[in-house]
Amino acid sequence: MKRQYHFFSAVALSGLLSMSGCQRQTESSLPMADLVSYVDPFIGTGFHGHTFPGATRPHALVQLSPDTHLTGWDASSGYHNDDRSIYGFSHTHLSGTGIGDLGDVLLLPYCGEDSIKPVATFNKETEKATPGFYAVHLDNFNVDVQLTSTEHVGLHKYTFGNPKERRVMLDLGHILQPNWGHKLTGNEYVMVNDSTIEGTFKTQGWAYFHSISYRITFSEPMEMVYQYIDGKLRSDSLFLKLVSDKDVKFHYKFKESGQPLMVKVALSPVSPEGAGRNMEAEIPGWDFDKVCHESKEIWNKELNRIRIKTEDPKIRTIFYTALYHTMIAPFAYQDVDGKYVGMDKKIHTASHGYTNYTVFSLWDTFRALHPLMTIIHPELAQKMGEALVQGYLEGTILPKWPLASNYTGCMVGYPAVAVLADLVAKDLQKGDMDLWAEAGARSSVYRADLAEKFKGTRESDLITHHIYYKDKYGFVPADSIPESVSWGLEMAYYDWCIAQLAAKAGNDSLAQAYAGKASYYKRYLDPETKMMRPVMADGTFRTPFNPRYSSHMKSDYTEGNAFQWSFFVPHDMGNFISEIGGKEELEARLDTLFTTSSQIDGAEASGDITGLIGQYAHGNEPSHHMAYLYNWTPSPWKGQERLDFILRNFYTERPDGIIGNEDCGQMSAWYVMSALGFYQVCPGIPLYAIGRPIVDEASIPVEGGVFRVIAKNNAKGNKYVKSATLNGKKLDSLFFSHSDIVNGGVLEIEMSDDHE
Questions:
Q1: Are 44 and 657 in contact (CB under 8 A)?
Q2: Residue 461: which residues within 8 A CB-CB, separation 6 or more?
Q3: How confident is the model at residue 30 (pLDDT cuts 50, 70, 90)?
Q4: Among 368, 461, 506, 564, which has the minimal tally of Cβ within 10 Å of its Cβ?
Q5: Cα gap 408→198, rounded to integer Å
Q6: Helix 433-442 × helix 484-505 angle, to 10°
Q7: Distance, CA of 699 to CA of 29 (rounded, Å)
Q8: Can you say whether the dihedral through the CA atoms of 295, 300, 305, 310 is positive or negative?
Q9: Residue 329: what are its φ and ψ, rounded to 5°?
Q10: Phi and psi at residue 232, in whole multiples of 5°?
Q11: Predicted pLDDT at 133
């Protein structure tokens, strides 16, 4: 079916597709099930998934996990499944990113080691992890470690095999990725009493100005304190207070005892006093089992946002682990009293109901994670949108990969507008729409003022000349700047998103201006190859042209090649299909994509190109919508076939069970939605394409009751959709609207082993 989507008709189109006369289920909630046992936090810790297995709560600041890998790409989360050494347990991490940072405030219990920086060894069989809990035995020190956490506090429990030698190292020189230029910039340390210390730890890395404050309390007094500065033992006097930019390590010795040693570590983005208040509010005592149980209950509540039925225990484990991974980032970055550091680096106090979030991997997560949240947790989706707009008010530009109150400027364009446009399309916007439109527009133009302000810092990556060229010429010249095609295509979509914001605000002139920019993608479309091809400053296409070629951060495409970027026009599928020659031509182009050789040319090809089927690369986000594009062709069954393969082969229950960087939940969000049987190809158009459900049944509590998806005859060999009905009425196409989900009801998909 040929479809044309325009900025002024997206909502109307979704309304036409909704079943207004359907019966709703009146059930407002589902009985709670124990789903935590199905989650395996070790999935994604192998290959290049870059996840971590430690203890955390949903969207929590503290992510307490072992650091086993300090340098290189596979140290992005601080942990890799192949490692057998532990440097310590730090309290902040990134889940599934391609760049590493954080790893703040590292502790390591040890025994009898005469070393400035002891390192533990462990056996994988002793590692245990469930949501909110992690445990391991340190072989060379004979120490059992158990970890749990709240939103701001990590709780450690150490049981020493040698009760005479009970020691703990606090490493305030520990950072992840020191070989990538990450470095320590400051330490402020105060010994409050014989069992409590506090301070502020400052680093410069991916987050260029990073500061985290802490308060650490031991369950018993220290017997001895050993202090090292840049590897030298200070023995003349005890540090009660220290201000330094040196590598500082403290070794604490405790009296002989057969009882476990407990440690509480509270964090604050604001101050040590804030950390103290966070500790008192969340863990005033020492009940490890209580905190662990509370974490389990909290995770169960979140995981119960989707209830599935499947006869395959592997699918159940993969599904709930994926759902777990979608709930780690973004995370709340403020104290219990509402104080936080904004994008302007100033301290603010959140107004009632507001939460400041950080770690928005927006270029990845706008595609599936944020759309998923609009379904299963619309209040949270709304709060995250509010945080993005508040970030604009503080920094005068929408956040782009914000990390600990820093702009990192990572990835393409200005993807925050995609999240905002999707909220608008689903009536989840909150606040002044004039402000939302203004935020989108000001974030989409070249900002010389910010280029000057951020000069010499990592935040300067936020302002590039791609935007300047787009507005000056209507395209990005490939001989002027790398990654021109990827930026050009995504900016066309983002400008369409801004048109949605402007239309909602009633600003017709702004909406029309950005609707015009949304068509700039056509400039890259080569009528001969039917591919998105780099355009030179003189208006000609780059010659020679090799669609398989990739050079990481140096070629015309971001983390990919022409094959992987020639299908990104989600906001204008009807016109795109016409431009390339019709829906049969789209089918032919997709067939070529999935069946051609998987050879990638180029000595410096991007390592992000993984999970190849032909030139389709599921391990990276630009490919994630492509199998669903078959729904715009005469042969949607081909997409169902591809989806079945991806779901069964690129997601497993093993540590290497994620085929590429998890990217803060995007890889997992794709799985969750696709396993349910549908996917939103274009955030901003509240329309879902039906694919190949891999679970037999799913129930999602929604505003109108419960939305159920039932896959009939869902055997492993029955990968094709025979028919689909919504609330008993047969769908005339493989699409349905967001309002159909929100209203509650039943989507029934009948599966078959025959695509005819």
A1: yes
A2: 407, 408, 409, 410
A3: low
A4: 506
A5: 28
A6: 160
A7: 10
A8: positive
A9: -130, 155
A10: -110, 130
A11: 98
- Of 151, 157, 159, 189, residue with least CA distance to 171: 189
Of 604, 642, 610, 388, whose CA–CA distance to 501 is shortest? Answer: 388
What's the token pair of residue 395? 């920094």
* Three-class secondary structure of residue 231 per DSSP: coil
CB 678 within 8 A of CB 690: yes
Q: CA 683, 689, 691 angle in degrees (round to 5)? A: 130
Q: How far apart are CA 528 and CA 548, in angstroms?
A: 17
Per-residue confidence at 746, pLDDT binned at 50, 70, 90?
Answer: very high
Please state, in angstroms and rounded to a whole number, the distance separating the CA atoms of residues 264 and 192: 14
Instruction: Select the more confidently predicted residue: 180 or 201.
Output: 201
3-state secondary structure of 544: coil
The CA distance from 470 to 203, in Å, is 35
The single residue listed with the structure tokens 């527009």 is 441
Q: For residue 218, list its beta bridge partners.
A: 263
**330 preceded by cis ω (within 30°)?**
yes
pLDDT tens, position by position, 278-337: 999 999 999 999 999 999 999 999 999 999 999 999 999 999 999 999 999 999 999 999
3-state secondary structure of 407: strand
Q: Could you tell me if 230 and 244 are in contact, meaning their C-beta atoms sit under 8 angstroms apart?
A: no
Q: What is the DSSP string of 238-273?
A: --SEEEESS-EEEEEEE---SSPEEEEEEEESS-HH
Sign, CA dihedral 687-692-694-699, equals: positive
Mean pLDDT for all residues in the chain: 94
Alpha carbons 618 and 611: distance in angstroms, whole number: 5
The tokens for 73 are 């790409």
In angstroms, the CA 711 to CA 693 distance is 7
Whether 18 has a pLDDT exceeding 80, the answer reads: no
654-696 pLDDT, tens per residue? 999 999 999 999 999 999 999 999 999 999 999 999 999 999 9
Interatomic CA distance for residues 47 and 502, integer angstroms: 43
Let me know how long the chain is. Answer: 756
Give me 685's structure tokens: 């158009």
| Angle CA 142–147–152, to nearest 5 | 145
| C-alpha distances out from residue 571 to 11, 633, 686, Å | 13, 17, 11
- DSSP at 201: E
Q: Coil, strand, or helix at residue 550?
A: coil
Letter for the amino acid at 198?
Answer: E
**In contact, 547 and 563? CB cutoff 8 Å:** yes
Q: How far apart are CA 373 and CA 680, in angstroms?
A: 12
Element (H, E) at 218: strand 210-218
How would you classify the pairing of strands 143-149 and 406-407? unpaired
**pLDDT at residue number 241:** 80
Radius of gyration of the chain (CA): 26
Judge whether 42 and 54 are in contact, CB under 8 Å: no
Round to whole Å and give the CA distance between 29 and 534.
51
Q: Pairing between strand 224-229 and 85-86?
A: unpaired
The residue to which tokens 């804030």 are assigned? 274
